[in-house]
């Protein structure tokens, strides 16, 4: 084994440098927990609760009903459901039968829905009844798929709850080739182009949940933990959180959609111990006027991903709870690749170190071939068994992203001498002004320290002379004021002159994805539209 990976010295003594790749399908995660902890609560959804035994029975019954109606291994089922018991039953049922889950955001409108249904070749579709009217606007796709309702109030013949009352007929076991069989088609956000279907195999998902578990196994109770299900299950961050909770025999607290008031009440009522989130969620809770010191006292630790967490938010959250926030790095194409092991001192601003079985390095931006010296920025590339099989029906994009076994992430990062990684920004987001390379994250970090600023996004706008000009879109905290001159003076104290935003716009809110990630590309698009008028 290579020993030139400096991060190995931070691995807990009980942790092997490589973990065994589990065999079999991802469904065995539920099978084993149901066998070991049948009476433990697996899912809480509002006032409803399912034990592991009840969840396993529901999955077997739904599997029997689907099989009887013709669902077979390799069939693609589009799931358009919020975080709920219905989603979780559907998810494990499709895995049980060897089908492929096609993730669909419930907020999608007919045009977005039509694209995914056509691209994925889905022949089955499950959603709540009220969502199914969207299918009327998707052309001829509706006539090619079997539509199932997942609504307790539905009276449809093809309904999840009717099928759960049927006799559970034994069906043959499904033989899964974990390295080859696709479990999940996770569509990318499409903010920089047409959305692509990421093919994640059973092995990708199975090994990753074990990789992530290895970094916290000495600090959790099995069973017994309660995980807050705020990240949407149609997003890969939500799936990783669900898989982890089920693997550890924990309780997954399903929250249909993030609303800060509801999230705070849920935390008070159910007292979660593990909190996976994104920066905007942590920030929203910290800004809530009714947040009390005791509200977060049940937490053991938190995980933050999808976007860099500002150091100011990190410090403020730490001041209100004893729970550490562990930043993670991952993407749809790679699942989780980096984080700090629980119990190891956190480096502020770092996404941590690579998980077991994972290699990572920083290469030059021009060719992607030359490894950069310690501390120098370049593109982060990753190799490991959790890296996707490829993009669905898109060989060109697959070849561009996967080269010699390495996944080219498009993220600009640095690595320090101890093997800790720091995300600087996205390759496509880098601003080139007057010949200087400017990374938005660095400027945002400075602005988040300003006492009046709640949210900020830095991006480049076209400039005939400088190539691009740095612009800041800023949301102020409630009850606070600031002028453009004050913001400029603040930046001049901490940044080189060429990095200081020349354009500043105050906004009431910033556009975000379904998981709360600020949409920089949307702001750039709006800026260009104004310039074209």
TrEMBL record:
Q: Which domain of life is it from?
A: Bacteria
Keyword field: Ligase
Ranges of residues in domain AMP-binding enzyme C-terminal: 442-517
Q: Which GO terms describe its molecular function?
A: ligase activity
Q: What InterPro entries does the annotation carry?
A: AMP-bd_C (IPR025110), AMP-bd_C_sf (IPR045851), AMP-binding_CS (IPR020845), AMP-dep_synth/lig_dom (IPR000873), ANL_N_sf (IPR042099), ATP-dep_AMP-bd_enzyme (IPR050237)
In this protein, which residues make up the domain named AMP-dependent synthetase/ligase? 30-392
Gene3D superfamilies found in the cross-reference section:
3.30.300.30, N-terminal domain of ligase-like
Tell me which PANTHER family the record gives: LONG-CHAIN-FATTY-ACID--COA LIGASE, NONRIBOSOMAL PEPTIDE SYNTHASE PES1 (EUROFUNG)-RELATED
Its protein name is Long-chain fatty acid--CoA ligase
Per the UniProt entry, what species is this protein from, by scientific name?
Sporosarcina soli
């Amino acid at each position: 084994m290579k020993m030139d990976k400096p991060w190995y010295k931070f691995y807990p003594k009980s942790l092997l440098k490589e973990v065994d790749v589990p065999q079999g399908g991802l469904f065995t995660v539920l099978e084993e927990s149901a066998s070991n902890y049948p009476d433990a609560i697996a899912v809480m959804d509002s006032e409803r609760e399912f034990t592991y035994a009840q969840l396993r029975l529901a999955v077997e019954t739904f599997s029997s009903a689907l099989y009887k109606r013709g669902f077979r291994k390799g069939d693609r089922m589009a799931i358009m459901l919020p975080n709920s018991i219905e989603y979780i039953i559907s998810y494990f049922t499709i895995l049980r039968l060897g089908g492929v889950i096609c993730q669909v955001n419930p907020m999608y409108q007919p045009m977005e829905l039509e694209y995914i249904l056509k691209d994925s070749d889905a022949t089955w579709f499950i959603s709540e009844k009220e969502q199914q009217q969207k299918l009327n606007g998707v052309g001829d796709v509706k006539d090619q798929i079997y539509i199932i309702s997942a609504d307790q109030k539905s009276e449809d013949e093809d309904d999840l709850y009717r099928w759960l009352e049927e006799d559970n007929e034994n069906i043959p076991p499904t033989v899964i080739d974990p390295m080859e069989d696709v479990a999940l088609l996770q569509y990318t956000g499409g903010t920089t182009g047409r959305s692509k279907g990421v093919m994640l195999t059973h092995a990708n998902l199975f090994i990753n949940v074990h990789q992530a578990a290895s970094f916290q196994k000495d600090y959790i109770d099995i069973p017994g933990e309660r995980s807050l299900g705020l990240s949407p299950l149609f997003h890969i961050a939500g799936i990783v959180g669900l898989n982890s909770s089920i693997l550890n025999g924990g309780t997954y607290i399903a929250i249909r959609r993030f609303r800060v008031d509801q999230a705070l009440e849920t935390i008070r009522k159910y007292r979660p111990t593990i909190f996976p989130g994104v920066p905007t969620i942590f920030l929203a809770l910290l800004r809530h006027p009714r947040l009390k010191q005791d509200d977060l006292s049940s937490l053991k630790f938190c995980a933050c991903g999808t976007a860099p967490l500002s150091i100011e938010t990190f410090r403020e959250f730490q001041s209100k709870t004893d729970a550490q926030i562990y930043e993670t790095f991952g993407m749809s194409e790679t699942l989780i690749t980096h984080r700090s092991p629980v119990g190891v001192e956190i480096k502020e601003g770092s996404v941590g170190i690579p998980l077991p079985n994972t290699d990572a390095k920083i290469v030059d931006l021009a060719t992607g071939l030359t490894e950069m010296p310690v501390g120098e920025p370049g593109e982060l590339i990753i190799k490991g068994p959790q890296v996707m099989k490829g993009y669905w029906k898109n060989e060109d994009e697959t070849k561009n992203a996967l080269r010699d076994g390495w996944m080219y992430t498009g993220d600009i990062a640095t690595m320090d001498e101890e093997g800790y990684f720091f995300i600087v920004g996205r390759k496509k987001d880098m601003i080139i002004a007057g010949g200087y390379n400017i990374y938005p994250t660095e400027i945002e970090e400075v602005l988040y320290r300003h006492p009046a600023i709640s949210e900020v996004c830095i991006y480049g706008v076209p400039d005939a002379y400088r190539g691009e000009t740095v612009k800041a879109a800023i949301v102020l905290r409630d009850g606070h004021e600031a002028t453009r001159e004050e913001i400029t003076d603040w930046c001049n104290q901490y940044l080189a002159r060429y990095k200081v935003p020349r354009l500043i716009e105050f906004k009431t809110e910033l556009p975000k994805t379904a998981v709360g990630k600020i949409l920089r590309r949307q702001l750039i698009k709006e800026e260009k539209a104004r310039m074209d008028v």
